[in-house]
User: Fold these one by one.
Assistant:
Number 1:
Amino acid sequence: MSADVTIVLMPKWDSREPSCATAYVCQYARSLGRRVQYLDYNIRLFDLCRRLGLGEFWTESRYHQAWLHGDMRFLSAFVDVEEIEGDVVGFSLTATNRELTLMTARRIRERFPRKKIIFGGYAVYYESDLRGIDPSLADAICRGEGEHTLREVLARDFRNLEEVPGLYLPHGAGWRLTAPRPLSENLDEIPWPTFEETDLPLYEVPDLPLMGSRGCIGRCVFCNDRHRTPGFRTRSAAHQADELAWLKERYDTDFFIYNDPLMNGSVRALEEKADEILRRGIRVKYGGNLMAHRGMKPELFRKLRRSGLTVAIVGLESGSTHTLRGMNKYHTAESGAAFIRECHNAGIRVELNIILGFPTETEEHFQETLRFMRDNRDCIDCVVSATTFQVGNSDMWRRRGEFGIEMAEGASTFDWRTRDGGNTFEIRADRLRRFTEEMAGMGLAPGRTDREIEQKSPETGTRFLKAYAAALEEGGPLFAGERAGADDRQRRARAEIRRVHLLKACRKLGLLDPLLRVKGALRGGGA
């Protein structure tokens, strides 16, 4: 039976675990009685690249700029728009899949002009995010939380959308917002995802992402997430426990990672969930983002650990109380140290996020952060992320004059300086380098940094084409769904189809000459 709605996730998304956002959209559409098709091109193309020895395109940060700037566009050659069943096609946009998404949407428009296309996601919230998106590529863009907006759009069959709040609609050469949509207050009314549409074995770890709450109680001046989802709302303990029990039984998942901006925005709700897990005897492990909350007693940490909380990702940001106050963080260096020590003493793994180069941060404040890390090393398991301070769509952006921040017109969010010259990109990059080196010496090397932010993207197209052409000579790599049960004859036939498809796509993308040179070199014909 064909689908009514097709949800598409283009690369690059994560290679370790599936998208929680698209899983929510799929389940919600099903709850409306729609037949849903999910095309996870992210993981399918990752699997292809991984088998070609190029999985690093996803896993190494030095390729970040390549994804942002569209240098990975050659991968669109492997998107078969003919397999799209739905009359409605929804795309989830991130910063790193935007270019491939727009290319694919254009191909759908050209091949199936009657299909309705809707965009949504983290990367299309602010009006500034929509610059460069051709209004002909989509019938609407969902702004923010999408469940109720999607319900109304589908119920109206894309007619009279001006009356639907929460949408950007084409307007001349750009986009215009209909009206802001009120946030969903009762999150228990939204069905949790079942991931039945997801090809889980292709992901690298057997974890599943969840959302127990939305929004945050913090008011950090650098954060733009709280503007996307203002206020804090949480699902009930029973609703979350039902989800954990069902997914555990269905997939025998070992670990659940909560994608909430803040798991302990409501300490009471967090404890109620722990109580419900323990009461039902649900044997799970889970983790997520926590703030260094002063309202959590030592016995609560121990209860949380018994319920399965094994990983606390703490937004420490700095070890300097002066810097933390400037950031408008709720904790001080002292209370932050006490919080991570309570986590450690309860047997909870502590992973820290660090931000270096806040506008008021001096060398002395930076040294305080280094001392904090040395003094509390025994309670810290890793630094999961270390970045330089960026000025984006946040309170800091509106207050940049107050902090003496100067930026060139159109400059990137990381490329700023203070008027007095006391804080420049070079100073911040040097602090990040010294921090990273010291953490490596302590066995706490950050898992993610932005040290390569100015690095030119490595060559990707020619490397991929060379690897793929070599594989074609051996019968051709297939997508995961095509490999099962394919005999030699089928493999040869499909490889030939892919050759033709690749040649056509490369000609359209301006990559035909590089491909032919690569194939000639592989056959001994020279470059």
Note: The longest helix spans residues 488-509.
Number 2:
Amino acid sequence: MLRRPKNILGISYGHGDSSAALFVDGKIIAAAEEERFNRIKHYAGFPTEATRYCLAEAGLSSADIEVIAVARNPWNQIPKKISLMVSQPQLLFQGRGRQSSSEQSFSGWISDMGLSHARKHSCEHHEAHMLSSRYLSESENQALLSFDGLGDFVSTAIGKTTKRGVKILDRVTYPHSLGFFYSAMTQYLGFPYFGDEFKVMGLSSLGKPTFLTQMRNLVREAEPFGFRINLEAFPVLRNPKIFSVVNSQPYVSQLYNAPYLTAILGFPPRKPKDHLSEDHWNLAKSVQVRFEEIANHLLGQLSRQVDAETLSLSGGCAHNSVWVGKIPQNSRFKDVFVSPASHDAGIAVGAAISAYGGPVSTASEHSSWALLGPRPNTKNSSHSNEALEEISFKKENQLLDFLAKELANGKIIGVARDRLEFGPRALGNRSILADPRAAHMKDKLNARVKHRESFRPFAASVLMEHQGQWFENTFHAPTMEAVFQVRPTMRQKIAGVVHVDGSCRIQSVNQKVQPFYWNLIEAFRKITGVPMLINTSFNDSEPIVLTYEDAIRCFLTTEMDYLLLEDRLFSKKSQSLSLTA
């Protein structure tokens, strides 16, 4: 019987959001994104510090790693590549040069990390995405959808579960990509940076789909599978170097034909600092609605090929939580699971699973691979910052009661405790928390803490036992990847998290998975009758904080009131607090 490898390191690099994940005996031990360590947002280089963390967390050295796994297969879809490149020779030139340079760097990095002895394993990009979500559910009969910008010449793939992993059933290949469509329109709306698509998703709630006819011209359904983008509007074949890395950060070149879009929309591209008008709101809404129409079209095609009610999602487009929350209402899929790191960070996990070649456990001590990063580093930190004042508590329940009361009084609390979240959502371990009841709290957080656009909404962490009383048509959403409508009778009670269209993105908080966080929200519920808190990521225009030092720096430069470092609570001395407990 073939022995499965014991220690497998999966890595993602070169795409943006580089990461590392470690499996030991088929069980995930650690996973982290490199940006959290080097503080470079969406870092696209090699995951050096993330790899070192994973090894340290498992008590291993580089010599212990048997396999290093990556989600890259240059031989994928060769016939289609050849066919396209014969007609578009510039694609062949650009692609060959980029791959060669990347592989040379990869070999050098492996050598520098002491991993040259490890067997190399490669799998297809979207296979890795699917594997990253496949083990979120215990169901052996799942339908799978992975879609993003592009990976291994493929933008979209559907599949099903097998005993050994996943089987891909169909694909959409380059140049057609729903990710390209959404990114191009994000750029047109004046949000030019890698990862800005979620801003359009938030902006869409302000508008009406008055440009939907034009959007249907830009991306069309196709049979028997997939869709096609308008290559006149999105001339990606004329500029094959869509993606590049500048100063270790990913950069996406302009994806749209400005004269074409201006002619059909009636207004030019918005510049980043220009005013957001009603036209921009309506265009954002139209983009979002068309995305949802195409995504639901894919789900319909998937459901005809896979007889299942469980759906597992991955790829960067799966982070479109506005669409995700409506899936059970718009398809046969009633159980929906979203990979917590659906973007390319998550393929490190999927590549490692592929290398293992059999069933794995993506449950950690927290029963979720969304919480697999480092704990705050206390070894070299005394927390003797002269700007901080510590408030001491003898018991945890006293701390929880104090925090709940202060939150109910409108205070804002930064939390850095336990293991860091893996993925883009802060889930209570590196979070900024506030009272969801007051409408002004949203404006205060945007202006004085997060320093970001005023239209941006905030999510709520909700006790899973109570979410059905406050939100309509909900399902379990532990990684904050679904938006639901707030029940009309409850909207005034939680005005701080209700978006303009009556919706709210939620995190379902499980007591067994996160007992401290659940107990804090429960203490708040006992005071206010509201079983939730505003939860936004602990950062200010930077990656989510990792260490105590990161947390203290962010705390002191924003208008938060308290900082919880593990079980130690601090305030700013300028607050002149005389509180003890």
Note: Confidence is low (pLDDT under 50) at residues 95-101, 576-581.
